[in-house]
């Protein structure tokens, strides 16, 4: 039985009582990203066309440019990853929208007691570049679909 898309809508800039997830959906994998940004300044952050998320439980990491970002996946399916490279800090915030099913696993195995299998993942978010010496600190928005688990 396929569940409808589960969309978790929240404002990424507000405070929530979200907790690191304890039964995390598997959102790890490689995403093809599309950027929508009109930002043009010297501090413009990298805009990778591919982003690979690594996941262990609720802990996530990814590389943006040559900078490793690390963070947490919350029970609301949103996540924040932060990293520092020299005098530049990057903060990636996003929410994962998943299409899931309950039942047999894709390899023919049987899910235990209604385990949820994540079929597709779409991410919506932003990457903020913060340069210590001030100036332009852009926030670039992106969307992306998982293209490889």
Topology:
Blueprint: E1 29-36, E2 50-56, E3 59-64, E4 67-73, E5 78-85, E6 88-102, E7 116-131, E8 139-148
Antiparallel strand pairs: 1-2, 1-8, 2-3, 3-4, 4-5, 5-6, 6-7, 7-8
In short:
It contains no helices and eight strands.
Q: Which of globular, elongated, flat, extended, rod-shaped describes the shape?
A: globular
CATH architecture, by name, is Beta Barrel
Total discrete domains: 1
CATH topology: Lipocalin
Strand pairing plus helix content: what structural class?
mainly beta
- Portion in strands: over 45%
Give the neighbour order of strands across the main sheet.
Answer: 1-2-3-4-5-6-7-8
The biggest sheet amounts to: 8 strands, antiparallel, barrel
Number of helices: 0
Could you estimate the helical fraction of the residues in percent?
Answer: under 10%
Order of helices and strands: EEEEEEEE
How big is the Rg?
16 Å
Question: What is the terminal separation in angstroms?
Answer: 21 Å
Stretches with pLDDT under 50, minimum 5 residues = 1-15
Q: What would your notes on this structure say?
A:
With 149 residues, the protein is mainly beta. It has a single domain, classed as Lipocalin, CATH 2.40.128. 0% of the residues lie in helices and 52% in strands. The chain is built from no helices and 8 strands. The protein has strands at residues 29-36, 50-56, 59-64, 67-73, 78-85, 88-102, 116-131, 139-148. It has an 8-stranded antiparallel barrel. The protein is globular.
